[in-house]
């Protein structure tokens, strides 16, 4: 089966610009996660979806971050406007039973 | 709040050695524990998942143990190879949420 797909793989933007990341989970996986991983740290959860419903977004900085999963399949995470501290790797994952499967991530650099 | 700690932060050993990576967590009310591998610039690859009712899991040269009562897990790698060089992350699952440690960066020297 195909894995979790993310795009773009790399993104460099100026601060205050908007940016969007896209994720397509493994087919049939209803649960989708977005994580942020800072350099030298483990991933931290930003938001979890069950189908199209965001069931845990307590860690999402809602003043500048937004996410959607309109048809319960692929998802988009947006940052507007980006700040220097947003530079990180943004990982998407989907879940089957108890196991999470991760995509390759998008490495964001904000200049 | 669950906290996960991995020791050591970095480890460098010669090829062929057996080694142990450690993971500790503060809240023993977990559903499972998962070990991941992350290569530079890549996503996470799941290595082993141990349910809270299990004591260990094995896959090839990897063996992971779980002692829920003491809040500890170990990942044992037998006969290490240069291709094992990567960052290893443990994560504990509680209430649908994975909490990660900061990882151990492993280097196997030929």
Kindly describe this structure.
The complex is a heterodimer of chains A (111) and B (110). Chain A is an all-beta fold. Chain A is built from no helices and eleven strands. Chain A has strands at residues 5-7, 10-13, 19-24, 31-37, 44-50, 53-56, 65-68, 75-79, 88-96, 99-102, 106-110. In chain A, strands 2, 4, 5, 6, 9, 10 and 11 form a seven-stranded mixed β-sheet that branches. In chain A, strands 1-3-8-7 form a four-stranded antiparallel β-sheet, with no helix packed on it. In chain A, strand 9 (88-96) and strand 10 form a beta hairpin. The model of chain A has no long low-confidence stretch (mean pLDDT 94). The relative contact order of chain B is 0.34. In chain B, strands 2, 4, 5, 9, 10 and 11 form a six-stranded mixed β-sheet that branches. Chain B has a five-stranded antiparallel β-sheet with strand order 1-3-8-7-6, with no helix packed on it. Helices cover 0% and strands 60% of the residues of chain B. Chain B has 110 residues and is mostly beta strands. In chain B, a hairpin with a 5-residue loop joins strand 4 (32-38) and strand 5.
Give the topology.
The complex is a heterodimer of chains A (111) and B (110).
Chain A: E1 5-7, E2 10-13, E3 19-24, E4 31-37, E5 44-50, E6 53-56, E7 65-68, E8 75-79, E9 88-96, E10 99-102, E11 106-110
Parallel strand pairs in A: 2-11
Antiparallel strand pairs in A: 1-3, 3-8, 4-5, 4-9, 5-6, 7-8, 9-10, 9-11
Chain B: E1 4-7, E2 10-14, E3 19-25, E4 32-38, E5 44-51, E6 56-59, E7 62-67, E8 72-77, E9 86-94, E10 97-100, E11 104-109
Parallel strand pairs in B: 2-11
Antiparallel strand pairs in B: 1-3, 3-8, 4-5, 4-9, 6-7, 7-8, 9-10, 9-11
């Amino acid at each position: 089966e195909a894995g979790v797909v993310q795009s773009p793989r790399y993104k460099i933007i100026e601060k205050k610009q908007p940016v969007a990341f896209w994720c397509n989970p493994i087919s049939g996986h209803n649960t989708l996660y977005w994580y942020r991983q800072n350099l030298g740290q483990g991933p931290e959860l930003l938001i979890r979806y069950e189908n199209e419903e965001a069931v845990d977004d307590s860690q999402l900085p809602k003043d500048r971050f937004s996410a959607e999963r309109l048809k319960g399949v692929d998802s988009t995470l947006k940052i507007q406007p980006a700040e220097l501290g947003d530079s990180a790797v943004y990982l998407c994952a989907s879940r089957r039973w108890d196991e999470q499967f991760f995509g390759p991530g998008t490495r964001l650099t904000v200049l | 709040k669950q906290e996960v700690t991995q020791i050591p932060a970095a480890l460098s050993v010669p090829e062929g050695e057996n080694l142990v990576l450690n993971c500790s967590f503060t809240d023993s009310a977990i559903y499972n524990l998962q070990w991941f591998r992350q290569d530079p610039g890549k996503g996470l690859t799941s290595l082993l998942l141990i349910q809270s009712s299990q004591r260990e899991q094995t896959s090839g040269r990897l063996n992971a143990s779980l002692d829920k009562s003491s809040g500890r897990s170990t990942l044992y790698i037998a006969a290490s190879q240069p291709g094992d060089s990567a960052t290893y992350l443990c994560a504990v699952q509680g209430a649908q949420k994975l909490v990660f440690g900061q990882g151990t960066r492993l280097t196997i020297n030929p």
